[in-house]
Amino acid sequence: MFRLPVSQLAVELRPYTGAEDVLLLESRDHEVRRSLALVHRLAQRCDGEALDAGSLPLPDVEALLLELRRTLLGDVLHAKADCPARECGERTDIAFSIGDYLAHHRPRVPRNKLVRKESGWFGLPQSDVEFRLVTAGDLIEAIDSANPKSALAQRTIRPASVSRNDVNRVQRIMDSLSPSLSQEVQKKCAKCGEWVRLFFNVHSYVQRELAFEAAFLYQDVHVLATRYHWSEEKILSLPRARRLQYAEMALAAGGVN
User: Fold this and answer.
1) So where are the chain's domains?
2) Per residue in 142-152, pLDDT tens?
3) What is the 3-state secondary structure (H, E, C) of 25-80?
């Protein structure tokens, strides 16, 4: 079981299969759409209710991706960046624990009390300004607009005539209640002591790692289909670890018949 940081829903992950590998290898959708597709395929609520991935706050989707990565490949993430100091340029490995990262970016309740409204809406005290948290579905709808930031504000803040100061105030509260997990990470350069900074995009990082791990999917399908005469559908439905084990055994036994 895994509890989502913002909505606090208890969820669990279904086994990761070759069908998800195909999604990452062949889909040309925007990375957030691919993330939602993965969540839709793999995540389920522990209470038996249907999980609407598009209605989840975006950090919950990012947290699910990180939990998937931890389940398949382990807790420690590695990224590399060059030191920005002109006289240095040392290649730096920035490594951190998924568990620690989630704890560091956990939601925080703002100091000012909020007025709870209907269906996830909040009201600012002594004000007619209301807002709700940005969902993954909101981001999908705003991606193709000319000004995504403005489009998100129009969908999640009311009334339409809200002042710029109130918009900024609301967005600070949103960042506290629902902090993005795609953030800058940093580490001091071991050679010169300069801070090395890198923007960590959860969606692209996790998808790139999983797609790299899926590089031999088509070979696995070919080997298993040829040796055991299984259908592609059956092979792709196997949990990833089991498919890899079968493919390794088939190759060790002499490859294909």
Assistant:
1) 2-77+96-104+200-213, 115-177, 217-252
2) 988 889 888 99
3) HHCCCCHHHHHHHHHHHHEEECCCCCCCHHHCEHHHHHHHHHHHHHHHHCCEEEEE
